[in-house]
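Practice problem 4.
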């Protein structure tokens, strides 16, 4: 402990010092002859206890206490007043300014020692308490941090599980469709080929008199005219089914994988659109404004999750706006640091009081059972933390919402998990 004796009388300084030494009070002793010197020492040396004279040149004890109170120091010493004045008004003012005790001069040894000991004990307890509080505060901060991390990890796992189950379901369906699709496509390509000679033959025999009647009755002219169109449309339909099945299989694969790879952002969004088409098509027309973008290196499955969330949210916002059909515009463009993607909708928009909450885990405005409030929080963590990008939102109630994603070509600083 450091005790500072602030006293203009040398004799009193020595008496105080000798008494402290005589009674083995464990402390370092410093001296100041006036208030200014005392304040300087308190600031520089970290004093625990000040024995403060009231009447001194330059600055009185009370003035010094006032200055001490206005000083910006992390550790304030306790103050015991040394006084010959029995004027209780002055002492009261000292107590009001923070002094904890007083010792009368001339010193009575026992009184002096008892008061110093008791104040030093208090200081020890106070210091212990302070340290314990600091430890507790630090632990509290750590605990809060751990809690937040745990919540995030939990949220992430829930979403991941959700997507993995969707992925498994999609993979199952895709597998079931894939086999019949393969033989339907193979048969259809034969049908297409067979139709050519059959049509040619029919055209050759068209003018045969015996066939005229049945030709007209069955409207063969129309059938021959319609057949190529039907074949063409059916081929397009089959191609589309094949593409959807392929996307579903890709989606299932990537949603279950923790690997990183190079991918084209436009292709990725197209695959997602195939998956969410059924949810979106009754609410919105999707407009694509793609520019050629450099390949991104990252976790494809996770980035797909982000676009599923954003597009489904956009579609739901349009549905909630009450419009029969809205527009979702998806734009991609290369920028200096990577690619910029925006997903804009003409939905109901976000109330300004909620806009800062949309990325919070479990924040949802959807009816109980419909929204978990996890989609955007997971998307944020995937884009910002895992890929070193940015995810921002702008919205105007009644007009629509736009989410902007900036993705760097690769996150170089941390390994993606
Ligand atoms: N495009 C949007 N337009 C308007 N509001 C939106 C849009 N996207 C998100 N929001 C608001 O942000 C909230 C949180 O979205 P988030 O995707 O995190 O959860 P959710 O859609 O409610 O539930 P889920 O976990 O099923 O996705 C939504 O409930 C909605 O209020
Ligand atoms: Mg959502």
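Answer key:
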């Amino acid at each position: 402990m450091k005790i500072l004796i602030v006293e203009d009388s040398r004799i009193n300084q020595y008496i105080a010092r000798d008494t402290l030494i005589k009674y083995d009070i464990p402390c370092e002793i410093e001296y100041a002859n006036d208030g200014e010197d005392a304040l300087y020492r308190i600031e520089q040396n970290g004093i625990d206890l000040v024995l403060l004279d009231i009447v001194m040149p330059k600055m009185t004890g009370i003035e010094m206490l006032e200055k001490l109170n206005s000083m910006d120091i992390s550790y304030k010493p306790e103050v015991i007043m040394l006084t010959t004045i029995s004027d209780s008004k002055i002492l009261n003012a000292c107590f009001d300014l923070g002094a904890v005790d007083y010792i009368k001069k001339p010193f009575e040894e026992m009184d002096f020692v008892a008061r110093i000991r008791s104040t030093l004990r208090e200081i020890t307890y106070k210091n212990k308490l302070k340290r314990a509080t600091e430890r507790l505060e630090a632990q509290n901060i750590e605990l809060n941090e751990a809690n937040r991390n745990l919540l995030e990890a939990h949220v992430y796992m829930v979403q991941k599980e959700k997507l993995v189950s969707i992925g498994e379901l999609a993979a199952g369906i895709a597998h079931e469709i894939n086999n019949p699709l393969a033989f339907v496509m193979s048969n259809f390509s034969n049908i297409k080929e067979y139709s050519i000679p059959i049509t040619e033959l029919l055209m050759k025999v068209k003018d045969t008199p015996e066939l005229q009647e049945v030709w007209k009755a069955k409207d063969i002219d129309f059938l021959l005219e319609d057949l190529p169109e039907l074949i063409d449309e059916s081929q397009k339909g089959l191609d589309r089914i094949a593409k959807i099945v392929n996307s579903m299989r890709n989606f299932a694969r990537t949603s279950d994988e923790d690997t990183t790879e190079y991918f084209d952002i436009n292709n990725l969004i197209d695959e997602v659109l195939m998956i969410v088409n059924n949810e979106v098509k009754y609410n919105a027309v999707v407009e694509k404004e793609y520019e050629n973008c450099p390949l991104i290196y990252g976790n494809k499955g996770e980035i797909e999750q982000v676009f599923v969330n954003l597009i489904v949210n956009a579609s739901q916002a349009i549905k909630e706006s009450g419009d029969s059909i809205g527009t979702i515009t998806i734009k991609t463009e290369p920028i200096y640091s990577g690619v910029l993607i925006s997903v804009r909708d003409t939905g109901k928009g976000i109330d300004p009081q909620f806009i800062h909450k949309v990325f919070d885990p479990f924040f949802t405005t959807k009816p109980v059972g419909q929204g978990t409030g996890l989609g955007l929080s997971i998307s944020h963590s995937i884009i910002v933390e895992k890929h070193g990008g940015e995810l921002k939102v702008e919205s105007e109630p009644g007009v629509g919402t736009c989410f902007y994603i900036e993705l760097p070509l690769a996150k170089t600083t941390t390994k993606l998990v």
